[in-house]
Specification:
This protein is an alpha/beta fold. The protein has helices at about 1-5, 40-45, 50-60, 90, 115-125, 135-140, 145-160, and strands spanning about 20-25, 25-35, 65-70, 75-80, 100-105, 130-135, 165. Helix 5 crosses helix 7 (about 145-160).
Length: about 190
């Protein structure tokens, strides 16, 4: 990574699975993760970019994955789950339950049948306040109506299940901020 992206070695902070790391403002907990199955070997991934070093880092990025949870000094817990669940839903129960989960879509972008149902079932098991789906840009760019319908269907299913958590309807290319607080309303 340092060679490919010209990152100073002193700017790389190595982490390992099942670790806890303390930073200013937050704690990082890391967990083993795996990418969705990719039916390609290394040689099939090569030659896709102009830079062969970039090919290698992209190929390894599709193999290894680190799921993680950030806990802010204020107690907000945000979980990041890429690829497969890898036991994360069991880890995120009780006092470990996050407020927000940023979760990779459940299957390949080519799969469109049962997407909302499968994702909502998983989300209901996580029983968290907010789910931010990620890595569904193929749907957003090639079939935005499907992407929008998937999110509204997931929210409908969550309501039908009696769950309070909802899916954030994020728009591609926009930045968001999350603010949670209590403010006195004026009369």
């Amino acid at each position: 990574l340092a060679k490919t992206h010209s990152i100073p070695l002193t700017s790389i902070y190595p982490v390992d699975y099942e670790g806890t790391y303390y930073f200013d403002g937050f704690i990082l907990e890391t967990h083993h993760g795996t990418h969705h199955a990719a039916p390609k070997c290394l040689s099939q991934c090569m030659g896709r970019k102009a830079d062969p070093l970039m090919d290698e880092t992209n190929a390894f990025g599709g193999t290894f994955n680190t799921n993680f949870v950030l806990t802010t000094d204020q107690g907000m817990r945000v979980a990041f789950i890429g690829g497969n669940d890898d036991g994360m839903i069991q880890r995120l129960q009780g006092k470990n339950k996050p407020n927000i989960i940023i979760r990779n879509k459940m299957a390949s972008s080519r799969v469109k049948e049962g997407v909302a149902e499968n994702f909502a079932d998983w989300f209901a098991g996580a029983d968290t306040q907010l789910l931010i789906p990620m890595h569904y840009e193929t749907w957003l760019t090639q079939d935005p109506a499907f992407a929008q319908r998937m999110i509204s269907d997931m929210n409908r299913i969550m309501a039908e299940k009696g769950k309070l958590g909802r899916v954030a309807p994020m728009e591609r290319g926009k930045w968001y901020t999350l603010n949670i607080g209590i403010r006195e309303l004026e009369d």
